[in-house]
Structure formats: structure tokens, C-alpha cells
Amino acid sequence: ISWWVNFIANFAVLIGALFMSAFTGGQSGGLETTILFIVAILAWFFNALFLPFYTGRNLGQYTSSTRYIRGDGSKPIFLHSLFVNNLGLLSLLGFVILFTQVGQLSNGGTGPIVWVSIGAIFLVLWIVNWQFTRNSDLNQGLFDLLFAAYLVRYVPEEKATSGFRARLESMSQFG
């Protein structure tokens, strides 16, 4: 459920904006489409960068009552969340880069070689992470092993939270 919630939170508005942009053909809806793209970037920023930096969890982890911890019980450093939360986006970006630049290789120059290499690295990184997750007894991916992090079920502390964090904690009831 965590993956689905994160996918919806990160990409639902973006997919809507892309469809709106594709079907209007640039004739009308320019301001609305621009606003949707801005909202999509803000939603991604909130779920993939802001929440993991301040709370160590994203919306999907709040919904599924999970969190990443290290062996000593502390939360992993922010880079772990950054890599784990954005690996799918990087692989999609790598796919687009690779298949738009591979045709430019015959023109010569170092630009297409660099871009094809970056795209290939992003795709290979996703495949390597998937293989690590698939072959691990603890379901740890590449970045989980690098940062010694484990995905565990989260039990909130005894002290009650209030405000915004309390609303995020109550999301697990829907999950």
C-alpha cells in the first residue's frame, strides 16, 4: 500500500497535467496546465523531500504504518530517504533520457554519450536495487544495505502527537 500511496501522491497530478497538455494541443488551457505542473512539483517535493527530511517517513509509510530504522533504532540519514523515494522517478527519467539520446550517438560529440551513460546508469540502478530486494531475506534493497536500514512496522510512541503529525499518524487507519 505504501508504494501505491506514494505513486498517487507523487504522480497523480503530473499525469493529469501531461494528459491535459497532450489533449489540448497547446491551443487552450495553458495557465491551467502550468498550475497543474507547479502543483505536481510541489506534491513531489512535499512527499519525496520535505516529509522524509523532517519526519523520516513519507505519505506511503504513514499510511502503511511503516518506517525505516537502523540496527540501533535510529532513523537513517536523509540520503537514504532521498535515494529510496526517488529511485522510480530516476529510472523513468533514465528511460526517457536513454531512448531520446541514443539516436544522437551517430552525430558524434560527447554530449549524447554522456546523456546515454547517465540514462543507462539510472536504469541499471533500478534493476540492481530490484535484484537486491528480491534476493534478500529481509527485503532490503541496495540503498537499505548501504545505509544499514530496515523497513519495520511502526508503533507510535506513548505521548500523543497533535496537529499535522497527528493527522499523518491517523492515516494508517485508512491503510
Gross morphology is flat
Mean of pLDDT = 84
Which percent bin holds the helix content?
55-70%
Content of β-strand: 5-15%
> Radius of gyration, rounded?
19 Å
Stretches where pLDDT is under 50 for at least 5 consecutive residues are none
Question: How many strands?
Answer: 2
Describe this structure in words.
The protein is mainly alpha-helical. It has seven helices and two strands; from the N terminus they run αααβαααβα. A two-stranded antiparallel sheet has the order 1-2.
Structure, briefly:
The protein is mainly alpha-helical and 175 residues long. The protein is built from 7 helices and 2 strands, in the order αααβαααβα. The N and C termini lie close together (7 Å).
Question: What are the defining features of this structure?
Answer:
175 residues; mainly alpha; two-stranded antiparallel sheet; 2 strands
Q: What order do the helices and strands come in, and which of them pair?
A:
Elements: H1 2-24, H2 30-55, H3 59-64, E1 66-70, H4 78-101, H5 111-135, H6 142-146, E2 149-153, H7 164-170
Antiparallel strand pairs: 1-2
Helix pairs in contact: 1-2, 2-4, 4-5
